[in-house]
Amino acid sequence: MKFRIERDVIGEVKVPEDAYAGSFTARAQQNFQISGIAAPQAFKKALGIIKKAAAITNLELGELDKRDAKAIIKAAEEFIDGKFDNEFILDVFQAGAGTPFNMNANEIIANRANEILAKKEKEISGIKGSYKPVTPNNHVNWGQSSNDVIPTAIRLAALYRVESLHEELEKLEKSFNKKAKDFHKIIKVGRTHIQDAVPIRLGQEFEAYGSAIRRCNMYIAESFDHLTELGIGGTALGTGITTHPKFRPLMVKNLSKITGIKLSATKYPMELTHSMNAFAIASNSLRVLANDFIRIANDLKLLVSGPMGAISEILIPEVEPGSSIMPGKVNPSVPECLNMIGYQVIGNDTAINYGVQSSQLELNVMTPMIMHNLMWSLDLLTNGSKMFRTLCIDGIQANADRCKQFLDESLCLATGLSPYLGYKVTAQLVKEALNKGKTLKEELIYQNFMSEKDLDKILDPAKLTAPSLTNRKLVDKIMENPNYKDYLRRVS
Of 21, 265, 326, 359, whose CB has the highest number of CB atoms within 10 Å? Predict the structure, then answer.
């Protein structure tokens, strides 16, 4: 490989001869070989958009001449389109505040801008590393600092990426709601403390899951709205040093126009250089979704458990063999994967919160790590939601016979008796039925508190899955029943 020599304040740096990136990037590549993880595409795009918007803004304010600004805009557009992705590969764990990311983009765009100008004007060499006439710092980065560019790029990238998550969650909600309708007529044992409780429709369980996903989606939308407030134009500390007095509002206006997102310039740019609370709020909303993903996945694993030795009230699609040693075994692989995704997102959120609280004085230097974890969580949840929907929820079937079997054998209908027999009597009946190995209905027929017809009305599982009025006349009739009076005296 052939190299060129570039010079910075530290000294000489060897840079690959044909590279658009320069000395700052080369040093960062040498210094920070940590994870092998590069910045995601959405962040690269956002960074390029900022450089384009800054060139447009500086041109409108007379801070850049037309020739140089147009070349920078053209180079930035190519950067946005991914032309230089193979040169934007710095590790996400790098020098604080993301200065290497910012300078990587500045160097690439500056060298490309000079190359564009060289094709039009013979006196411009366009040799990479010459930085004539366009320089990374005084032209591409004019009116900016890594301290306002990187947080702004993270905000734009997250706002772009969250749209895909919203779409996937809407589809997942619809999938749950469809199953809720399909399973509406199936009544089963509802459980609390993993013990039989009261009847519930299988459809009601799935309706609740759909509602939870919808609520998470709303919370995410509300939380990510905080990211539309930008500190760009604040430069190093938020004071706006070196910028034109009109740069900040015009820069945000141009960013809004390019991105199609309604953005606003913060009234407190000094705050946004050191406070990264907006990222903590956004990440926390993703953690809430992760919590629900874990909870729902765990429920489905219980409901599908078996198929012969446990609950097995639902059947989920078989996506792969479940064992390397046990023939015919099939595992709930998709819910298991969703658990892993949820745990990782919770870990990412913890890392982000540590990063956010690590601001010191006028700057938070943890933004590269915050960006990596926030964007990773968005990707994990978006892809995980699609997997969960297409490979699990859409294909779930109800095991109606199993649901009925458990309902018939269970004592979970007992709560429906309390308004008629009282809590104490009902509890004793449940106990005696268990001891005798009888169903609750069998025990009640034996005690002869009421007619079988009235008993069937009270214990109708469908009525017990919703609010209903107590038949006061029947209560009075039972209270006068000699068998009931005798039983009441015995248990009292």
Answer: 21
pLDDT in tens, 136-172: 999 999 999 999 999 999 999 999 999 999 999 999 9
User: Of residues 35, 125, 323, 468, which has the active-site annotation?
Assistant: 323
Please say if 333 is a catalytic residue: no
Domain count, the chain: 3
Nearest-angstrom CA–CA distance, 317 and 396: 6
Extract long-range pairs of 10-17: CB within 8 Å, 24+ residues apart: 15/129, 17/128
Q: Which domain holds residue 419?
A: 411-491
Q: What is the CATH number of the domain that holds 381?
A: 1.20.200.10
DSSP of 54-113: HHHHHHHTTSS-HHHHHHHHHHHHHHHTTTTGGG---BSS-SGGGHHHHHHHHHHHHHHH
Query: Does any domain span residue 256?
Result: yes
Judged by DSSP in three states, 15 sits in strand
Q: Rounded to two decimals, what is the model's pTM?
A: 0.94
List the structure tokens of 473.
């006349």
